[in-house]
From TrEMBL, chain B:
Keyword DNA-binding: no
Gene3D superfamilies: F0F1 ATP synthase delta/epsilon subunit, N-terminal
Coiled coil: none
GO terms of molecular function: ATP binding; proton-transporting ATP synthase activity, rotational mechanism
Family listed: Belongs to the ATPase epsilon chain family.
Pfam name, any one: ATP-synt_DE_N
Keyword field: ATP synthesis, Cell membrane, CF(1), Hydrogen ion transport, Ion transport, Membrane, Transport
HAMAP family recorded: ATP_synth_epsil_bac (MF_00530)
Species of origin: Brevundimonas basaltis
Membrane-related topology note: Peripheral membrane protein
Domain called ATP synthase F1 complex delta/epsilon subunit N-terminal: residue spans: 5-83
Cellular compartments annotated: Cell membrane; Endomembrane system
Protein name, as recorded: ATP synthase epsilon chain
Amino acid sequence: MASLKEMRNRIGSVKSTQKITKALNMVAAAKLKRAQEQAESARPYARKMAAVIANLAAGVSGDGAPKLLAGTGSDQKHLIVVATGDKGLAGGFNTNVIRAARERIKSLIDAGKDVRVIAVGRKVRDGLSRLYGDRIVQTFEMSGHKTIGLPAAEPIAALIAEEFEAGNADVVTLFYSRFQSVISQVPTPKQLIPAVVDGDAPPIDLNGAVYEYEPSEEEILETLLPRNITTQILAALYENQASFFGAQMGAMDNATRNAGDLINSLTLQYNRKRQAQITTELIEIIAGAEAL
Amino acid sequence: MAGKLSFSLVSPEREIFAGLVDQVDAPGVEGDFGVLADHAPFMTALREGVVTVIDGGSRRQFEVHGGFADVTPAGLTILAEQASEVAAA
């Protein structure tokens, strides 16, 4: 049984842990607000982009369609992009995305496909390197970027394009965590190549008129599609960021509450023990006095 | 005069402008062009330059770096890589 001093120390250390988790919770709440705004303000662009591409895709179906849109005609080589955070202390945020990706990788490998992985965020590398370390092409870390923006998304998109051009990938899928609400972040796979024409995008009614393109349709698509990948990645990074802080807020809130419970029960034990000790001392004194 | 043109200018980070205007002038890769309401469907890449939004007597200018303009019967959408408003002179 621990001595009183040990128990006092223990209570003190839980208390300081609670202070830290409480502070982290508040920091995450503040950052969440910004990240959420950012994720929401990036949505119009992604939505418009999807609408434009859906429109273009309807026009160029067939042999002339660019490979980024139509695919290479094979689905042997898969490139999986997994995006999580660089940091932990966010509950299930990182593990959920990694688990979803790992299941996909496993089922693809079982189906005899070639799978390679691009890791975005240090936690992915940590989480996947044991099983699939030799399949990781490259790891990107977000901590080098002060805020998430195009400079963070562009190198990832460039690498994907490079791998695709080099014929190392037929299908590219991005795993990230979609921010649904503060308490719910959903690990989501999103296919980047071949581009999925968004069913949600409202079809544009042209009233029978014919679109004019300047320069040609193909040239526009060819510049638009790579940009679309960048946009999708950026949108995913924003969602991830918001999810991360949401998950961290939840995790830290729980931790703070648990620390509170622990402090209460420790304090109770401590007081009981102190009482017991005082009682024993008194009995000893009284017994000693009686003996005289 | 015909109705107003619904115009929105969006960058990956945020929506910069959205509203009904009279006319928008934009720098296309094959020449500058102006869009009024009920323009024919048209899509073009943009080069670096200034997008001018004219509404009544007021003019607002936005600097854009690369992107696309998409004209549909519903209006004009400019997807810009980067865009920022030029301070009114």
